[in-house]
Every structure is written in C-alpha cells, then in structure tokens.
Amino acid sequence: MKKFVEELNEKIPSGAQLTEVQVEGSKIILYSKNPEYFSENPELIKTIVSNYKKRVDVRATQEILADPDKARQIINELVPDEAGIENVTFVTDISRVIIEADKPGLVIGKSGATLKEIKEKIKWSPRVERVPVMKSKIVDTVRQVIYTDMDARKKFLEKLGKKLLTKSSSGGQKEEKRDYWVRMTALGGFRQVGRSSVFVQTPESRVLIDCGVNVAATGTKEFPYLNAPEFKIADLDAVVVTHAHLDHSGAIPYLFKYGYDGPVYSTPPTRDLMTMLQLDYVDIAQREAKKVPYGNKDIHELIKHSIVLDYKEVTDITSDMRLTFYNAGHILGSAQAHLHIGDGLHNLIYTGDLKYAKTNLLDQAETNFMRLETLIMESTYGGRTNIQQSLEIAEQQMTDVIKNTIRKGGKVLIPVLAVGRAQEVMIALDKIVRKESMDGLKCYLDGMIWDATA
Prior knowledge:
Elements: H1 2-11, E1 18-24, E2 27-32, H2 36-40, H3 42-52, E3 55-60, H4 68-78, E4 85-91, E5 96-101, H5 104-108, H6 113-122, E6 125-130, H7 137-148, H8 150-169, E7 183-188, E8 197-201, E9 206-209, E10 238-240, H9 246-249, H10 252-257, E11 264-266, H11 268-287, H12 296-304, E12 306-308, E13 315-318, E14 321-327, E15 335-341, E16 346-350, E17 374-376, H13 391-407, H14 421-435, H15 449-453
Parallel strand pairs: 2-3, 5-6, 9-10, 10-11, 11-12, 16-17
Antiparallel strand pairs: 1-2, 4-5, 7-8, 8-9, 13-14, 14-15, 15-16
Helix pairs in contact: 4-6, 11-12
C-alpha cells in the first residue's frame, strides 16, 4: 500500500494539492485541497484509471468543505423548488452530501450543470437519490444503516481495498496457465428449486454466488450444503447476489452470524429488496415459533458490507476475478453474474433466474457476451412441455374475471408474491382500467407489496 501511494503521488502534479490517497474496495480515493484541478485536467484521471484498472473518486479535504448550514442554503438556492428536496444529509467521513428529492433530474440539471455548480461552491461531493413515491420503512432502514455508521463502513472498504491491492501487487495469478484451475461446486439449487448457491474457486480466490433458502423445507434441507469439505466461511473472499428472492439471498445473513465480514455484491434494487424479504423471513419464523437462523443484527451487518454495482459496471472482487452484472429480466434488479477469471483465462456466467422475453415491466435478459467458456443457467421452466401462454391472453383472462366479478357485485382478491409478480399484476391492472374505462375501480395494496413497490 505504501509503495502504491508513493508511486501515485509521484504521478500527480503538485497543483492538485493531494493530501491523502486511499483505496476503498476497487476504487482509488484521492483527497485534495484543489479538487477542481482534476475536472480541469480530465486526462489525468483517465491515465490513472488506465494504469491501475480502477475507478477514481476525487474528494475535497474536510478543511475546505463548506459549513453544512451554508452548504444547505447554497443547495436550496441553486436547485429549483419544483425538485422537491425533502432531505439533505452530510456524511463528513467521505466528504459527501446526500440530496433526497422528488425529481432528481432537476437537482442534477441539464447535462449535470446544476450538480457541477453545487460541487464547485460547497466542495462536498453531491449524491442525488429519489424520494420513494410511497413511504417505505425498508428504504429508510437501508439508508440509515449505511449513512449513520459511515466510519465503520469506510474502514471496511479501506480494509477490502488494501486486501485487493496487496494480492494484485504480489503477483495475483502466479501459476502458469497450464497449472491454473477453476472449480465450481453446486451447494444448492441444482435439480431442485430453492437454496440456490454456487461456490467458485481458483488457486487465489473463494467466491460464493447466491446463498438462498428453501422456505418449503425444514432442517438441513432448508439451507445450502455449507458443510461441504471445500467450503469454509473464514476463507470466503466475496459473496455475489443475483437477485433478491429468498431462494437466492435468504441465507446470506447466516454467513455474517458465523464470522463472515467480507463484501456482498449486488445491484442497488437487489440490496434493498433482499433486506425487506430477509426481515420478513425472520419475522415470520418468530411468529410461527420456528428456530430463527439469524437476526436483524446480522441483516444490518449485510447492509454495511454491501457494495452495489450497476449493470455492465466492471469491478475487481478478488485478485484474479472481475465481476460484471447483466440484466436477467426476472425481477427488478435481477442480474446475471459474469466472472472474468485470471488474465483472459476463463469467462463464466451464472444466470440466476432469468426471463427471455420482454414484459410490461422489464426488458428481456441480456444474451450478447463477447466471450464465454462456461454457462450455468437456471432452467426451472426449460422443459419441452413448459409452454406458457402469452401475456396478451393472460391479461384478457384477468380482464374477464374482473368484469364478471364486478357485474355480480363481488370483490377480486389476487394473492401474489410481493416482489416481481405483484408489480407485473399492478401494471396489467392499470392497462385494464384504462382500456375498459373502469375509472371508478379501486385497487388496494396489502402486505409487503407497498414496500417492494416503493
């Protein structure tokens, strides 16, 4: 780490007034008394990214940050009232200001002009988040856990950054290609539905993709085969989550209960949705007097250790593995996990649950990959006889049921899973109401559907 910092300091001109260099996860963090220098010299950042294959985040040193009250005043002056700013939170540890607004686009401005002006005047790095259209305790909980204990999270990211940097600088893939190996172990979800989990090993790395539960099972059959001889929680480098459903994410807090303290990679929606489902899983187990495998404390630890990635954003997760998420088309935030292993040695994709058809809510799963040697694909409905009717026919059938029920003076109850299917049904209902001119029809949301939709 010391050698890396010295090398970087030599490459950055004195005009940048660099005060500190840190590595948080796979990001290089540069603290500067003159952050504008980097925006005025964009080629400098491009060179650093090219040389080290890591993203760069430039932050102002705390001594030049505007006073929070003054900064809040400047933000309110620059952002139009129509943006609907509801909350402004200052996170001093990372020189960041979180702006929560009804209309994030108005805070960002045309081509990012407003956001750029805010940063120039207050020096804090602004991050804009949308206020949920519907109030959600889950969204509030996730944001609170992340931002209220930012010091602990910063230390975790710095520890991870040093680990990745140390391994990569020590040589990473030392073995010759003929001696290098990649091993995949099925810990659950193969030839069965539920408790999906795939363990990927190389001479350098141990990565777990998904760690779900089988909610319909009991005892040892409820969880993945975590007592496999090659699997040890203490040796685990990273956990990757493809989507939020409990059969893929339900056992992850269990890992933290028994000592795991590494990163959990997912898309932003997956992090929030799996938190909601895991909390509900614990709540139901307690109400049914079942043995609870983990508690809310372990779920909060998961949130603190979560690292979110957008689709097609490449990041190092170990010394010899790079992760990229691609749309899976299953539910909001669902992703296929692409692992680039070694220096061009092997490319693996685990699809998780996927849907190869465009729906009212989501685009179809991504299928165009430049290079791929191993494909692990979900195939629950992949049989010859698993032919599902078209969306148009399903919507017409639901329309007929609703019209017949209303004509008889009844009420339609639609029991549906809260994440994924519920949102598809809501969109279908909206289409039906508009098409059939049922403006007076009232629709009520119950249970977790409210939080999941928010």
